[in-house]
Amino acid sequence: MSLALVTMSHSPLLEYADPPAEVADAVQGAFDTARAFVKDYDPTLVVSFAPDHYNGFFYDLMPPFCIGYEAVGVGDYGTAEGPLNVPAERAEELAQWVAERDIDVAISRRMEVDHGAIQPLEILFGGIDAVPTIPVFVNGVAKPFVTMRRVRRLGEAIGAFLTTFEDERVLVLGSGGLSHDPPVPQWATADDAARAMLLSGRHPTAVARQARQQRVIDTAKAFAAGTAAIQDLNPAWDQALMATLASGDLSPIDAMTPEQMAKDAGNSSHEVRTWVAAFAALGAAGPYDVAYSFYRPIREYIAGFGVMAARTAP
Ligand SMILES: O=C(O)/C=C/c1cccc(O)c1O
Ligand SMILES: [Fe+2]
């Protein structure tokens, strides 16, 4: 049973920033290529590994991983609001399979997902309910972080489950990364108001959401102008990681530590956990070929911006 994969950076700033036309066009070209890859594969099921940015998961209960049996988009940054098309029985079977392989995952019967999960579905499929999708939350912003080996093992376990389907064409998605350090608050440095949001800031008022988003939009403008107090992108780190993922041997990733990742590639570099899980899932079906790889460091989007597409080798 073969699998296919698309991993892509997301950025809410795609809709709110104005990079040079050549850069915006290159990104749109990468999306076009990924869309054509997906159209050609024609998936019947998507398993989407995505982080959250304190829109669905908060410090009142923060799991490292969570499989959604149902899911609803919260509509941040103008992304689609409302239910995803989640095949609940398949999701339940997946959670059982993973639990039996010694990986502890939370489950949610009403997972709330943000731009991290929604943006790739909108870009690749034009909507959030076009193809049955099992959402898998992978914590990429909130300390403490599990080891990268654990993330790889989650991906391998999920991939092994997917290879048992004779009747599906499964696409695994990974959303997030690469190097980037957007102004998502950190518990250790947050003031009381920010801590209240990090603890249980579900369903903010429109005014509160707007203020939070405007801060990120303003930071992106300043970052592009060279005046933002956030960590710079790290193209060498990004491209080295993409080369490892493309190689088919993910073992070097086990040595990556959260501390070094944040130091080298910013506090949101932990979002690459979704890419690692997705590639590990793909690898469970055997050797794979990378069909497409795109990378640009784009300050206007606060993102080392990558897109990869791959498929089990024939
Ligand atoms: O505002 C947020 O919660 C996150 C913003 C952001 C900005 C740039 C790249 C990303 O991956 C983000 O999630
Ligand atoms: Fe993100």
TrEMBL record:
<keyword id="KW-0223">Dioxygenase</keyword>
<dbReference type="GO" id="GO:0047070">
    <property type="term" value="F:3-carboxyethylcatechol 2,3-dioxygenase activity"/>
</dbReference>
<dbReference type="Pfam" id="PF02900">
    <property type="entry name" value="LigB"/>
</dbReference>
<comment type="subunit">
    <text>Homotetramer.</text>
</comment>
<keyword id="KW-0058">Aromatic hydrocarbons catabolism</keyword>
<protein>
    <recommendedName>
        <fullName>2,3-dihydroxyphenylpropionate/2,3-dihydroxicinnamic acid 1,2-dioxygenase</fullName>
        <ecNumber>1.13.11.16</ecNumber>
    </recommendedName>
</protein>
<dbReference type="InterPro" id="IPR023789">
    <property type="entry name" value="DHPP/DHXA_dioxygenase"/>
</dbReference>
<keyword id="KW-0560">Oxidoreductase</keyword>
<comment type="pathway">
    <text>Aromatic compound metabolism; 3-phenylpropanoate degradation.</text>
</comment>
<comment type="similarity">
    <text>Belongs to the LigB/MhpB extradiol dioxygenase family.</text>
</comment>
<dbReference type="InterPro" id="IPR004183">
    <property type="entry name" value="Xdiol_dOase_suB"/>
</dbReference>
<feature type="active site" description="Proton donor">
    <location>
        <position position="115"/>
    </location>
</feature>
<feature type="domain" description="Extradiol ring-cleavage dioxygenase class III enzyme subunit B">
    <location>
        <begin position="6"/>
        <end position="287"/>
    </location>
</feature>
<feature type="active site" description="Proton acceptor">
    <location>
        <position position="180"/>
    </location>
</feature>
<comment type="function">
    <text>Catalyzes the non-heme iron(II)-dependent oxidative cleavage of 2,3-dihydroxyphenylpropionic acid and 2,3-dihydroxicinnamic acid into 2-hydroxy-6-ketononadienedioate and 2-hydroxy-6-ketononatrienedioate, respectively.</text>
</comment>
<keyword id="KW-0408">Iron</keyword>
